[in-house]
User: What shape does this take?
Amino acid sequence: MNIPFNKPHLTGKEAHYMYQAVADGKLSGNGAFTKKCQQFFEERYGFKKCLLTTSCTDALEMAAILCDIQPGDEVIVPSYTFVSSALAFVRSGAKIVFADSMQSNPNIDAEKIEALITPRTKVIVPVHYAGVACDMDRIMEIANKYNILVVEDAAQAIDSYYKGRPLGSIGHLSAFSFHETKNIIAGEGGMLCINDERFIRRAEIIWEKGTNRAEFFRGEVNKYGWVDIGSSFLPSEVNAAFLWAQLENLDEIQTHRKHLWELYKAELSAIGNRQFVLSDIPEYATNNAHMFYLVCKNLDARSALIKHLKDKGVLAVFHYLSLHSSPYYADKHDGRDLPECDRFADCLVRLPMYCDLKDEDVLEICKMIKSYEMK
Ligand SMILES: Cc1ncc(COP(=O)(O)O)c(C=O)c1O
Assistant: This one.
């Protein structure tokens, strides 16, 4: 058996649309495919304005610029997350105040945020781990009380909801990823969503290297020039064409991933608790089947499970190392212990999950996990 952890899924139309972009002779960004993809998200999820980017990291960097992060401003970020959730703000000079995870899942513990707020707090970054919603009502309540901006890191959260509201539509800004490990992919790719209309005009300018080029092409101004800071955040039409082929199949992809996820759950729930805890989906959240993870009892148990599966040709992998004790940030962190975050760093293991995974593969992996338990 040889089951990888992830395998990019192709719908079959990617090369066709990429060829079409080439044949149309419009290869740079902000062309027809970019507009189609952005409109898809705006219409389907009600995001006020979407801008495709070359990665979610870039979308977060744009968010940091829009939030006007100045050196010394504080940004509250969960420690159990991908580097970019913090890095994007650090590049603008922010001090990261790391927050702990909940006990029941790796998302930021909304009840512990208020104690971290100071007069310098400018942004809270909830990360919807595994595409499962953070407690957004509580987070927005705190943000509104202290006049703080919220940037949702929705890298993994496409097509997922909080109390019926699409993730990415609740904070002032949000960022998605289309990296090849995500549900919908473009190789590398991302998207910034702007829900607070105050930021729309500036976002377009930052996106287009600090120029008002997008306004010029819409005929709103008769020349364009350098009006602000920015960078080249927009992807080429070739990337957008690839993404379009994926978006056309979003429902099929999601239906199949959810089927695989439910199969894992049905097979493993009987032995959950005794050996490990299964992914927790709070009542207020939906499951977009981005990831199927288990939380083992301790680091040794997790290492043994990973080895057991690897010996049988199945690649299961752990995830983040706590950012507050990372080589880059350890001496900048304020010294608080973040025990839940450390526990997930030690104990969480992700099982293979990709659209082309077969039912038989899932059943076989579950059998291996069960046989391991019986030892
Ligand atoms: C939570 C989170 N934020 C940000 C990123 C960065 O995404 P990208 O690789 O598109 O820059 C990732 C990527 O895995 C992620 O999981």
Residues 55-57, 81-82, 84-85, 127, 153, 155-156, 177, 179, 190 surround pyridoxal-5'-phosphate (CB under 6 Å).
